[in-house]
Specification:
By secondary structure, the protein is α/β, with parallel strands linked by helices. The protein contains 6 helices and 15 strands. Helix 4 (127-139) links the parallel strand 8 and strand 9 (146-150). The longest helix has 13 residues, at 127-139. The N and C termini lie far apart (53 Å). The relative contact order is 0.12. The structure holds S-adenosylmethionine (SAM). S-adenosylmethionine binds at residues 73-76, 99-100, 102-106, 123-126, 129, 152-154, 168-170.
Length: 254
Protein backbone atom coordinates (compact mmCIF):
# COMPACT_ATOMS: atom_id res chain seq x y z
CA UNK A 1 0.00 0.00 0.00
CA UNK A 2 1.20 3.52 -0.74
CA UNK A 3 1.91 5.49 2.44
CA UNK A 4 1.96 9.23 3.09
CA UNK A 5 5.38 10.74 2.31
CA UNK A 6 6.42 8.02 -0.19
CA UNK A 7 7.67 8.82 -3.69
CA UNK A 8 5.41 7.45 -6.43
CA UNK A 9 6.33 7.05 -10.07
CA UNK A 10 3.39 7.88 -12.35
CA UNK A 11 3.65 5.88 -15.57
CA UNK A 12 1.68 6.18 -18.80
CA UNK A 13 2.73 4.82 -22.20
CA UNK A 14 6.47 5.00 -21.46
CA UNK A 15 6.17 8.57 -20.08
CA UNK A 16 6.91 8.95 -16.39
CA UNK A 17 7.33 11.42 -13.57
CA UNK A 18 7.68 11.15 -9.80
CA UNK A 19 5.83 12.87 -7.00
CA UNK A 20 5.86 12.78 -3.20
CA UNK A 21 2.51 11.68 -1.83
CA UNK A 22 1.07 14.09 0.73
CA UNK A 23 -2.53 14.85 1.63
CA UNK A 24 -2.47 18.02 -0.47
CA UNK A 25 -2.89 19.31 -4.01
CA UNK A 26 0.25 19.84 -6.10
CA UNK A 27 1.13 20.91 -9.61
CA UNK A 28 2.69 17.97 -11.44
CA UNK A 29 4.41 19.12 -14.65
CA UNK A 30 2.85 17.32 -17.63
CA UNK A 31 -0.30 16.40 -15.71
CA UNK A 32 -1.67 19.47 -13.91
CA UNK A 33 -3.04 20.15 -10.41
CA UNK A 34 -3.46 16.88 -8.56
CA UNK A 35 -4.64 15.87 -5.07
CA UNK A 36 -1.75 13.49 -4.29
CA UNK A 37 -3.56 12.37 -1.12
CA UNK A 38 -5.78 10.21 -3.40
CA UNK A 39 -2.80 7.88 -3.86
CA UNK A 40 -2.53 7.10 -0.12
CA UNK A 41 -3.75 3.54 0.58
CA UNK A 42 -3.71 2.54 -3.12
CA UNK A 43 -1.91 -0.67 -4.05
CA UNK A 44 1.41 -0.46 -5.88
CA UNK A 45 0.80 -1.22 -9.56
CA UNK A 46 -2.80 -0.01 -9.47
CA UNK A 47 -4.08 2.75 -11.76
CA UNK A 48 -5.53 6.16 -10.98
CA UNK A 49 -7.23 8.73 -13.18
CA UNK A 50 -5.46 12.08 -12.93
CA UNK A 51 -6.67 14.89 -15.18
CA UNK A 52 -7.71 13.36 -18.48
CA UNK A 53 -5.47 10.28 -18.29
CA UNK A 54 -4.97 7.11 -16.33
CA UNK A 55 -1.57 6.49 -14.69
CA UNK A 56 -0.06 3.38 -13.15
CA UNK A 57 1.34 3.96 -9.63
CA UNK A 58 4.81 2.41 -9.33
CA UNK A 59 7.71 2.45 -6.87
CA UNK A 60 10.50 4.52 -8.48
CA UNK A 61 13.29 2.34 -9.92
CA UNK A 62 16.86 3.57 -10.18
CA UNK A 63 17.08 2.24 -13.76
CA UNK A 64 14.70 5.05 -14.76
CA UNK A 65 16.41 7.71 -12.67
CA UNK A 66 17.82 9.69 -15.61
CA UNK A 67 14.25 10.08 -16.99
CA UNK A 68 12.67 11.64 -13.94
CA UNK A 69 15.48 13.19 -11.90
CA UNK A 70 16.99 16.63 -12.35
CA UNK A 71 20.21 16.57 -14.38
CA UNK A 72 23.03 18.94 -13.53
CA UNK A 73 26.06 17.17 -14.94
CA UNK A 74 26.29 14.54 -17.68
CA UNK A 75 24.97 11.35 -16.07
CA UNK A 76 26.10 7.77 -16.27
CA UNK A 77 23.70 5.23 -17.80
CA UNK A 78 22.21 3.19 -14.94
CA UNK A 79 23.15 -0.08 -16.65
CA UNK A 80 26.81 1.01 -16.73
CA UNK A 81 26.57 2.06 -13.09
CA UNK A 82 25.36 -1.38 -12.08
CA UNK A 83 28.21 -2.99 -14.05
CA UNK A 84 30.69 -0.83 -12.13
CA UNK A 85 29.03 -2.00 -8.91
CA UNK A 86 29.35 -5.62 -10.02
CA UNK A 87 33.01 -5.34 -11.06
CA UNK A 88 33.84 -3.48 -7.82
CA UNK A 89 31.90 -5.97 -5.70
CA UNK A 90 29.67 -3.27 -4.24
CA UNK A 91 27.14 -5.31 -2.32
CA UNK A 92 25.46 -5.31 1.11
CA UNK A 93 27.52 -3.82 3.93
CA UNK A 94 30.30 -2.33 1.79
CA UNK A 95 31.74 1.15 2.29
CA UNK A 96 32.26 3.05 -0.93
CA UNK A 97 33.90 6.40 -1.64
CA UNK A 98 32.68 8.03 -4.84
CA UNK A 99 33.36 11.24 -6.75
CA UNK A 100 32.13 13.45 -8.41
CA UNK A 101 28.53 13.03 -7.49
CA UNK A 102 27.31 15.02 -10.53
CA UNK A 103 23.57 14.41 -10.71
CA UNK A 104 23.82 11.56 -8.21
CA UNK A 105 22.76 8.73 -10.53
CA UNK A 106 25.83 6.58 -9.85
CA UNK A 107 25.59 7.56 -6.16
CA UNK A 108 22.00 6.25 -6.15
CA UNK A 109 22.95 2.95 -7.78
CA UNK A 110 25.82 2.37 -5.37
CA UNK A 111 23.61 3.32 -2.40
CA UNK A 112 21.00 0.76 -3.46
CA UNK A 113 23.75 -1.87 -3.75
CA UNK A 114 25.31 -1.33 -0.30
CA UNK A 115 21.98 -1.91 1.44
CA UNK A 116 21.10 -0.89 5.00
CA UNK A 117 24.45 -1.85 6.52
CA UNK A 118 26.70 -0.23 3.93
CA UNK A 119 27.52 3.37 3.17
CA UNK A 120 28.40 5.57 0.21
CA UNK A 121 30.38 8.75 0.79
CA UNK A 122 30.39 10.89 -2.31
CA UNK A 123 32.57 13.94 -2.97
CA UNK A 124 31.45 16.74 -5.30
CA UNK A 125 33.38 19.94 -5.98
CA UNK A 126 30.65 22.12 -7.47
CA UNK A 127 28.06 23.62 -5.19
CA UNK A 128 25.22 23.48 -7.80
CA UNK A 129 25.92 19.82 -8.65
CA UNK A 130 26.13 18.98 -4.95
CA UNK A 131 22.63 20.40 -4.41
CA UNK A 132 21.22 18.59 -7.46
CA UNK A 133 22.72 15.28 -6.35
CA UNK A 134 21.45 15.71 -2.78
CA UNK A 135 17.95 16.55 -4.00
CA UNK A 136 17.88 13.56 -6.38
CA UNK A 137 19.09 11.21 -3.65
CA UNK A 138 16.36 12.52 -1.31
CA UNK A 139 13.73 11.96 -4.04
CA UNK A 140 14.80 8.35 -4.27
CA UNK A 141 14.62 7.96 -0.49
CA UNK A 142 18.30 6.98 -0.32
CA UNK A 143 19.60 9.80 1.88
CA UNK A 144 20.07 7.49 4.88
CA UNK A 145 22.53 5.34 2.91
CA UNK A 146 24.76 8.01 1.50
CA UNK A 147 26.44 11.24 2.41
CA UNK A 148 27.37 13.74 -0.28
CA UNK A 149 30.19 16.01 0.83
CA UNK A 150 31.51 19.12 -0.85
CA UNK A 151 35.14 18.41 -1.61
CA UNK A 152 37.81 17.36 -4.07
CA UNK A 153 38.01 13.59 -4.52
CA UNK A 154 41.68 13.98 -5.45
CA UNK A 155 42.59 15.62 -2.10
CA UNK A 156 39.89 15.76 0.53
CA UNK A 157 38.93 12.13 1.18
CA UNK A 158 39.22 11.38 4.92
CA UNK A 159 37.86 7.82 4.85
CA UNK A 160 40.35 4.93 5.08
CA UNK A 161 40.19 1.14 4.60
CA UNK A 162 37.22 1.49 2.25
CA UNK A 163 36.02 -1.40 0.10
CA UNK A 164 35.73 0.54 -3.15
CA UNK A 165 36.81 3.89 -4.59
CA UNK A 166 34.74 4.82 -7.65
CA UNK A 167 35.10 7.94 -9.78
CA UNK A 168 33.48 9.73 -12.69
CA UNK A 169 35.63 12.85 -13.12
CA UNK A 170 37.36 14.36 -16.18
CA UNK A 171 40.95 13.43 -15.17
CA UNK A 172 40.62 10.16 -13.27
CA UNK A 173 44.37 9.57 -12.89
CA UNK A 174 44.55 12.64 -10.60
CA UNK A 175 42.55 10.70 -7.99
CA UNK A 176 44.86 7.67 -7.83
CA UNK A 177 47.01 8.93 -4.93
CA UNK A 178 43.82 9.39 -2.92
CA UNK A 179 42.46 6.02 -4.06
CA UNK A 180 45.63 4.30 -2.79
CA UNK A 181 45.34 6.06 0.56
CA UNK A 182 41.62 5.38 1.03
CA UNK A 183 41.39 1.78 -0.18
CA UNK A 184 41.99 -1.24 1.99
CA UNK A 185 44.29 -3.96 0.63
CA UNK A 186 42.37 -5.79 -2.10
CA UNK A 187 39.88 -2.92 -2.33
CA UNK A 188 38.39 -2.08 -5.71
CA UNK A 189 39.06 0.96 -7.88
CA UNK A 190 36.52 1.80 -10.59
CA UNK A 191 36.40 4.66 -13.06
CA UNK A 192 33.94 5.75 -15.74
CA UNK A 193 35.88 7.30 -18.60
CA UNK A 194 34.68 9.12 -21.73
CA UNK A 195 37.60 8.57 -24.15
CA UNK A 196 40.15 5.93 -25.11
CA UNK A 197 43.24 8.08 -24.46
CA UNK A 198 41.99 8.77 -20.92
CA UNK A 199 41.38 5.04 -20.51
CA UNK A 200 44.95 4.28 -21.59
CA UNK A 201 46.33 6.87 -19.14
CA UNK A 202 44.40 5.39 -16.23
CA UNK A 203 45.38 1.81 -17.02
CA UNK A 204 49.09 2.70 -17.36
CA UNK A 205 48.96 4.66 -14.11
CA UNK A 206 47.24 1.77 -12.32
CA UNK A 207 49.94 -0.62 -13.59
CA UNK A 208 52.72 1.69 -12.33
CA UNK A 209 51.09 1.66 -8.93
CA UNK A 210 50.93 -2.15 -8.98
CA UNK A 211 47.16 -2.38 -8.97
CA UNK A 212 46.13 -5.87 -10.03
CA UNK A 213 43.19 -7.50 -11.81
CA UNK A 214 42.88 -4.46 -14.11
CA UNK A 215 40.12 -4.63 -16.72
CA UNK A 216 38.71 -2.13 -19.17
CA UNK A 217 35.48 -2.48 -21.10
CA UNK A 218 32.72 -0.76 -22.98
CA UNK A 219 29.09 -1.53 -22.28
CA UNK A 220 26.72 -1.87 -25.22
CA UNK A 221 23.05 -2.73 -25.15
CA UNK A 222 20.71 -3.18 -28.11
CA UNK A 223 16.99 -3.23 -27.42
CA UNK A 224 14.83 -5.85 -29.13
CA UNK A 225 11.53 -4.69 -30.62
CA UNK A 226 8.81 -7.31 -30.38
CA UNK A 227 5.90 -6.85 -32.81
CA UNK A 228 3.05 -9.15 -33.93
CA UNK A 229 4.78 -9.84 -37.26
CA UNK A 230 8.30 -10.37 -35.96
CA UNK A 231 11.14 -9.44 -33.66
CA UNK A 232 14.03 -7.19 -34.66
CA UNK A 233 16.78 -5.19 -32.96
CA UNK A 234 16.09 -1.47 -32.46
CA UNK A 235 17.45 0.90 -35.10
CA UNK A 236 18.18 3.44 -32.33
CA UNK A 237 21.07 1.83 -30.48
CA UNK A 238 23.15 4.19 -28.36
CA UNK A 239 26.48 3.25 -29.94
CA UNK A 240 28.87 4.76 -27.39
CA UNK A 241 28.72 6.41 -23.99
CA UNK A 242 31.97 5.77 -22.16
CA UNK A 243 34.38 3.14 -20.89
CA UNK A 244 34.93 1.53 -17.53
CA UNK A 245 38.29 0.70 -15.93
CA UNK A 246 38.46 -1.42 -12.79
CA UNK A 247 41.32 -2.80 -10.72
CA UNK A 248 42.27 -3.85 -7.19
CA UNK A 249 44.82 -2.45 -4.78
CA UNK A 250 47.52 -4.93 -3.83
CA UNK A 251 49.68 -4.44 -0.75
CA UNK A 252 53.08 -5.58 -2.11
CA UNK A 253 55.30 -5.33 0.97
CA UNK A 254 53.37 -2.33 2.22
C1 LIG B 1 30.22 13.55 -15.32
S1 LIG B 1 29.78 14.20 -13.78
C2 LIG B 1 29.41 12.79 -12.79
C3 LIG B 1 28.04 12.25 -13.07
C4 LIG B 1 27.62 11.19 -12.08
N1 LIG B 1 28.43 9.99 -12.20
C5 LIG B 1 26.17 10.83 -12.27
O1 LIG B 1 25.88 9.66 -12.61
O2 LIG B 1 25.27 11.66 -12.06
C6 LIG B 1 31.33 14.69 -13.12
C7 LIG B 1 31.20 15.45 -11.83
O3 LIG B 1 32.45 15.43 -11.18
C8 LIG B 1 32.64 16.66 -10.53
N2 LIG B 1 34.11 16.77 -10.31
C9 LIG B 1 35.07 16.98 -11.24
N3 LIG B 1 36.29 16.90 -10.66
C10 LIG B 1 36.07 16.61 -9.34
C11 LIG B 1 36.92 16.42 -8.22
N4 LIG B 1 38.26 16.49 -8.36
N5 LIG B 1 36.37 16.15 -7.01
C12 LIG B 1 35.03 16.08 -6.87
N6 LIG B 1 34.17 16.28 -7.90
C13 LIG B 1 34.67 16.53 -9.12
C14 LIG B 1 32.03 17.66 -11.49
O4 LIG B 1 31.70 18.87 -10.83
C15 LIG B 1 30.79 16.90 -11.98
O5 LIG B 1 29.69 17.18 -11.16
Amino acid sequence: MIQKGEMVLLWKDDWMTIVRVDPETKKIPGIGIVDTGRMIGKRWGSTLELGRDCYTLLQPAVKDAEKFLKRGAQVILPRVGIQIALYCDVFCGKTVVEGGAGSGILTAILSKCVGKKGKVISYEMRDDHLRTAQSNIRKLGLDDKCEIKQGDITEDVTEREVDAFIIDIPEPWTALDMAEKALKGGGFFGSYIPSTNQLENVVKELRKRKFIDIRSFESLEREMIVKEKGVRPSFDMLGHTGYVVVGRKANFNR
